[in-house]
Amino acid sequence: MQPRAVRLVQLSRVRYAELLALQERWLRRLQPEPGTEALSGTEAGALLLCEPAGPVYTAGLRGGLTPEEAARLRALGAEVRATGRGGLATFHGPGQLLCHPVLDLRRLGLRLRTHVAALEACAVRLCELRGLSGARARPPPYTGVWLGERKICAIGVRCGRHITSHGLALNCSTDLTWFEHIVPCGLVGTGVTSLSEELQRHVTVDEVIPLFLEAFKETYKCSLISEDSPN
């Protein structure tokens, strides 16, 4: 059986709002109204990759930020956005790989929990390919990928009618001081880290994207079709 195809859309550095707008367009494409363009029968959706152009704090369905906290974070020069993903508050910013797979899980033969585990496996594999053999996933509420008690990759997804959105945020060369202004993902007593911190050298998002794509294809057993980034 031929593997399902997933469209690869790389956006380089963009504002978080632009990523969300593109995600919404792909959600509409996977849930088409009569008379609108739909995916071919061999495609399962899209893999959206980018690096945030500026600092932004996001809150999930479980909240995580009071109006007072949101005002304090905006005063630091960051955006603050509510999202429809699972989980609590986290940070996105330059030096971070954002991966938003917009997928029809039925076409890939996956359940939601299997999809979350696959995202974790992709990040673990990327860390291993960079020589960090201690990276591992942990059971809820510690969703994501960890090196000891330090989280290197946060995961939060949304799923409706078997269609997923949002995804993971992997710290490559992220300024980790931004995390000091919140309790990341609501987990008290844990820390955050990055590839640059662990490897003691500057690791760019562009450097790790080929490794992540390799891990994604292996884990999801799919092919990737490159698509031009929207203007």
Automatic annotation (TrEMBL):
<feature type="binding site">
    <location>
        <begin position="167"/>
        <end position="169"/>
    </location>
    <ligand>
        <name>substrate</name>
    </ligand>
</feature>
<dbReference type="GO" id="GO:0033819">
    <property type="term" value="F:lipoyl(octanoyl) transferase activity"/>
</dbReference>
<feature type="binding site">
    <location>
        <begin position="154"/>
        <end position="156"/>
    </location>
    <ligand>
        <name>substrate</name>
    </ligand>
</feature>
<comment type="function">
    <text>Catalyzes the transfer of endogenously produced octanoic acid from octanoyl-acyl-carrier-protein onto the lipoyl domains of lipoate-dependent enzymes. Lipoyl-ACP can also act as a substrate although octanoyl-ACP is likely to be the physiological substrate.</text>
</comment>
<dbReference type="InterPro" id="IPR045864">
    <property type="entry name" value="aa-tRNA-synth_II/BPL/LPL"/>
</dbReference>
<feature type="site" description="Lowers pKa of active site Cys">
    <location>
        <position position="151"/>
    </location>
</feature>
<dbReference type="Pfam" id="PF21948">
    <property type="entry name" value="LplA-B_cat"/>
</dbReference>
<comment type="similarity">
    <text>Belongs to the LipB family.</text>
</comment>
<dbReference type="GO" id="GO:0009249">
    <property type="term" value="P:protein lipoylation"/>
</dbReference>
<keyword id="KW-0496">Mitochondrion</keyword>
<protein>
    <recommendedName>
        <fullName>Octanoyl-[acyl-carrier-protein]:protein N-octanoyltransferase LIPT2, mitochondrial</fullName>
        <ecNumber>2.3.1.181</ecNumber>
    </recommendedName>
</protein>
<keyword id="KW-0012">Acyltransferase</keyword>
<dbReference type="GO" id="GO:0005739">
    <property type="term" value="C:mitochondrion"/>
</dbReference>
<dbReference type="InterPro" id="IPR000544">
    <property type="entry name" value="Octanoyltransferase"/>
</dbReference>
<dbReference type="GO" id="GO:2000376">
    <property type="term" value="P:positive regulation of oxygen metabolic process"/>
</dbReference>
<dbReference type="InterPro" id="IPR004143">
    <property type="entry name" value="BPL_LPL_catalytic"/>
</dbReference>
<comment type="pathway">
    <text>Protein modification; protein lipoylation via endogenous pathway; protein N(6)-(lipoyl)lysine from octanoyl-[acyl-carrier-protein]: step 1/2.</text>
</comment>
<keyword id="KW-0808">Transferase</keyword>
<feature type="domain" description="BPL/LPL catalytic">
    <location>
        <begin position="41"/>
        <end position="224"/>
    </location>
</feature>
<feature type="active site" description="Acyl-thioester intermediate">
    <location>
        <position position="185"/>
    </location>
</feature>
<feature type="binding site">
    <location>
        <begin position="85"/>
        <end position="92"/>
    </location>
    <ligand>
        <name>substrate</name>
    </ligand>
</feature>
